[in-house]
Specification:
Helices cover about 55% and strands about 15% of the residues. With about 210 residues, the chain is of the alpha/beta class. The protein is globular.
């Protein structure tokens, strides 16, 4: 009723931000798809890899803190990563929302992300998993390794170990969001355009 009244007077009620977790194992195409979704829906992709490169490269206080752990070969605590996420989010108060690419990787990180968004009056809209079978992932990563020269994409045993780690440590995040009815899955096989079309059709329903 309120929306109808606002529309009658030509006033658009600002919609809630759409915050998506693009989820899937290495090689599922998250980064490629996130970039395409940014432009179509006015969202900002947040990649934890990019965050770390920025904070470390610019020697920010959070970057310095992260480096103290990394130099000792230790994992960077989640609160440091969450701090980086917050810094990125507050830079873009007027965007339609965010795509989280590569985060959260664990259930504690999922809880931390939910709490961070809650403090900002936001929430996770959906986790969208790209479903790709292991053999397809291995093939993709080996092909990627030939082009990129990345050592972790050039060795099949290393790739399979990465996928095992994903299934043990990261896949439970899907269950976490599924239990609160926020997880959805789309087929991740096909051309980039085909997969993007499936994502577009789903994400359009959130606006």
């Amino acid at each position: 009723m309120l929306q109808s009244i606002l529309e009658f007077f030509g006033i658009k009620k600002k919609s809630k931000k759409v915050n998506l977790i693009l989820f899937g194992p290495p090689g599922s195409g998250k980064g490629t798809q996130a970039k395409k979704l940014e432009d179509k829906f006015g969202l900002i992709q947040i990649s934890t890899g990019d965050l770390f490169r920025y904070e470390l490269g610019n020697n920010t206080p959070l970057g310095q803190k992260a480096r103290t752990y990394m130099d000792k070969g230790q994992l960077v605590p989640d609160e440091v990563t969450i701090g980086m996420l917050k810094n990125k989010i507050v830079q873009f108060p007027d965007v339609n929302g965010f795509i989280f690419d590569g985060f959260p990787r664990t259930i504690p990180q999922a809880n931390a992300l939910n709490n961070l968004l809650l403090t900002m009056g936001q929430s996770v809209t959906a986790l969208i998993a790209l479903d790709v079978d292991n053999e397809e992932l291995v093939t993709r990563l080996l092909d990627r390794g030939k082009l990129s020269g990345r050592a972790d994409d050039a060795n099949e045993s290393v790739i399979r170990n990465r996928l095992d780690v994903y299934n043990e440590e990261t896949a439970p995040v899907y269950t976490f969001y599924n239990e609160i009815n926020l997880a959805q899955t789309i087929p991740g096989k096909g051309t980039i355009e085909e997969i993007n079309s499936r994502l577009n059709n789903l994400i359009s329903t959130f606006f």
